[in-house]
Write a structure and sequence with these properties.
Largest sheet: 8 strands, mixed
Distance between the termini: 26 Å
Helix content: 40-55%
Strand order of the largest sheet: 7-6-8-9-10-11-13-12
Number of helices: 19
Length: 434
């Protein structure tokens, strides 16, 4: 299946000053597949080493002599590893002691060799006994499949062209079909295995079983990597659907247990963030670039990495999601917000916050910051698309800043002086170009 990240991998390969590449992302988002596919297509040969399953890795990195490491791999796989012609892949790199540290020496002593590694955010960033090779590696983050990638996988290239060209008239003409595909995505989500299963079988029960297996894998990871925090990690993780189902989606520690405080769960919450399983969106008190200067880390929302997994965790009835528009309005629009947030996170060099006014119910779902712009975003899944908060934000409270609001809804494209309304299914094509 085609993934947008392929272009970033090509850019890395063709850089004369390339460093070892670390592909970050949660389990099951397709890291191994894309690296192997890239190696087969773009190099004369590829050497793939799974550090979890291959016994050679127990001693391979014992002295960090990278020339010896390459020689041992050539012997083991009976092949030549040649700079410029070979892609050397270390998968599950966090499972081999000193493997991450070795990337520093690959950069310094064999910088002409293309080395790519995959691992979870947790395994790479939290291994305390090893030093992370700061400045010696190039990192790329990988996320679940976007809606546009889902359309490509489903063979809907012509509709994808309509979205990418932002052909609003044609979108309105094909609105029914695009909305149907969007419903599918809300149920299936962007985990590649779930997408493949739906395309192959169209069987919603089999898709849901794949999703449950993925969630079970995550539960095993929680138990394996954080024995001291496992109970609290599970409490935070299992609370997310209920947290998002409220009108006010700000994360509430009291819903975990009576009297719960932030300090009791901060390590558990950070575990989930570092593992790439949840996205933390903090409140911003003032919409001024850079937004981080005005972040309020005591107030935040938690979203799941994938709306399909959110549907599975919520035990949402497949018919509810696939046969009508309930998917867009159930749980106070939680699926729609999670869907939009997934696509905001996938935009390189961007940050996402939300805004709320002190002592007021006024709230902007997302403040999206690119290198040049701040865009206030509102997500409307119900038929009522009145945007009073967005209107006040743009036209009164911060009028001098000249913001143009962006609203995602089920309505056709509309451009007003202060706001653009964009159909939900066009979110990726719009936010990638802000």
């Amino acid at each position: 299946m085609y993934r947008n990240i392929y272009k970033e991998l090509l850019n890395w390969k063709n850089r004369p000053d390339h460093k070892p590449l670390i592909l970050l992302g949660a389990r099951q988002v397709g890291k191994t597949y894309i690296l192997q596919d890239f190696g087969k297509r773009e190099f004369e040969n590829m050497v793939y080493v799974n550090c979890q399953r291959n016994s050679i890795c127990e001693q391979l990195f014992r002295d960090l002599d990278v020339k010896r490491i390459v020689t041992e791999l050539e012997r083991y796989f009976d092949t030549d590893i040649v700079a410029g012609k070979t892609l050397l892949i270390f998968d599950e790199i966090q499972e081999a002691k000193n493997a991450i540290t070795s990337l520093k020496y690959f950069c310094e002593e064999m910088n002409s060799l293309h080395v790519a590694v995959a691992g979870s955010l947790l395994g790479i960033q939290l291994r305390e006994e090893e030093s992370f090779p700061v400045g010696k590696v190039h990192t790329i983050k990988m996320y679940p499949m976007t809606f546009n990638e889902y359309l490509m996988a489903c063979g809907q290239q012509r509709l994808l062209e309509v979205l990418e060209n932002k052909d609003w008239e044609s979108m309105e003409l094909h609105n029914e079909k695009l909305t149907e595909l969007l419903r599918q995505y809300f149920f299936v989500g962007g985990m590649p295995e779930a997408v493949s299963k739906y395309i192959e079988t169209g069987n919603v029960r089999e898709v849901r079983e794949v999703q449950r297996e993925i969630l079970e894998t995550y539960s095993h990871d929680m138990a394996k990597h954080s024995k001291t925090q496992i109970q609290r990690i599970h409490q935070v993780w299992q609370s997310i659907p209920a947290q998002l189902s409220r009108e006010n989606k700000k994360f509430f520690y009291g819903s975990l247990r009576k009297g719960a405080r932030a300090k009791d769960f901060e390590l558990a919450l950070q575990w989930l963030v570092d593992a790439g399983l949840v996205y933390r969106v903090e409140r911003c008190k003032k919409p001024v670039h850079p937004l981080k200067f005005y972040a309020d880390d005591s107030a935040f929302k938690l979203y799941l990495l994938d709306c399909g997994l959110l549907a599975c965790m919520s035990e949402a009835n497949p018919n509810m999601l696939l046969l009508n528009d309930n998917a867009f309005v159930e749980f106070k629009g939680a699926f729609a917000e999670n869907f939009v947030l997934q696509h905001l996170k996938a935009v390189p060099d961007s940050l996402t916050f939300y805004y709320s006014k002190d002592n007021s119910t006024m709230e902007i779902d997302f403040l999206f910051q690119t290198e040049e712009h701040i865009v206030p975003i509102e997500v409307k899944a119900a038929e009522n698309v009145a945007s009073r908060s967005l209107y006040l934000f743009v036209n009164e409270d911060f009028k001098e800043q000249g913001f143009t609001g962006l609203r995602f809804s089920l309505k056709p494209y509309i451009k007003q002086s202060w706001m653009e309304n964009v159909p939900l299914y066009a979110v990726e094509s719009v936010v990638q170009r802000l």
